[in-house]
Every structure is written in structure tokens, then in C-alpha cells.
Design brief:
The chain starts with 10 loop residues before the first helix and ends with a helix. It is flat. The protein has a two-stranded antiparallel sheet with strand order 1-2. The chain has helices spanning about 10-20, 45-70, and strands at about 25, 35. The protein has one domain (about 10-70). Helix 1 crosses helix 2. The longest helix has 28 residues, at about 45-70. With about 70 residues, it is mostly helical.
Amino acid sequence: MGCSTDPLYTPHAFLRHGKIGLSSGARFGPPGHGFVRLNFAAAPARLVDAVKRMAEARDRVDRQVTGRLDLGS
């Protein structure tokens, strides 16, 4: 999953907000910088659930950031 270089989308953030363990793409060399990696050695149903939780976690972080920005307006 592409996460650019935004520090909000770290493996730790996905664990905290989505209860999903991911690896930093940077651990797999320079081309992986700005990405997170999901282990695909799991049952298809677990992978579907994991991807849904990843999307929900990213949405949660986005809403928090937007809320913080709106507070200053």
C-alpha cells in the first residue's frame, strides 16, 4: 500500500488504528520506502478482513487530521 512519505501512515499507525500488523516497506530496500507491506501467507478471508481494516485505519487517521485542521479555522 502506497503511503508516500507521510509519517501518519506508518506500520505503527495501522496497528494502533486498525489492529493490523504491517511491515515497513523500507525494510525491503530503497524501492519500498513510502510503502507498507502485508504478509499474504494467510487464508483469503483473513486477507479480505485485513485490507478492510487497513482502509478503515487510513480513513480514521484522515478524519483525525481533517478534524485537527478544521479546529484552527
